[in-house]
TrEMBL record:
Domain of life of the native organism: Bacteria
Protein's recorded name: DUF1416 domain-containing protein
Chain residue ranges for the region called Disordered: 78-101
Keyword Ubl conjugation: yes
Origin species: Gordonia sihwensis NBRC 108236
Keyword entries, A-Z: Isopeptide bond, Ubl conjugation
Length: 101
């Protein structure tokens, strides 16, 4: 059985943000309420699927990626949403995704 790592805003011990690019954020609805259980996909600069996680009970998600252009796509029963991020280097890059029908 395959499972996504536990999501949340607190990074696991041992993550070196001087060397790693971390994309993190929260899925929210149009009123700013967290959307639990949304599927959050990471798409590369060409739109190709790279990874997927399930947002936590508080709507949080996290990906480890490389610098470049990425699309974060959230899919949920409350709607869908996309946002593009372009981290230029290592560190924590926080970007929320708002979903709407």
């Amino acid at each position: 059985m395959c499972a996504a790592p536990k999501q949340g805003q607190t990074l696991p011990a041992g993550v070196d943000t001087e060397k790693e690019t971390v994309l993190t954020g929260q899925v929210v609805d149009g009123s700013g309420n967290p959307v639990a259980g949304a599927f959050v996909r990471l798409l590369d600069g060409t739109g190709e699927f790279t990874a997927e996680v399930v947002a936590s009970a508080t709507g949080d998600f996290r990906f480890f990626a490389a610098p470049g252009t990425w699309t974060l796509r959230a899919l949920s029963s409350q709607g869908n949403g996309d946002v593009t991020v372009s981290p230029e280097g290592p560190g924590v890059h926080n970007q929320g995704v708002t979903v709407a029908k």
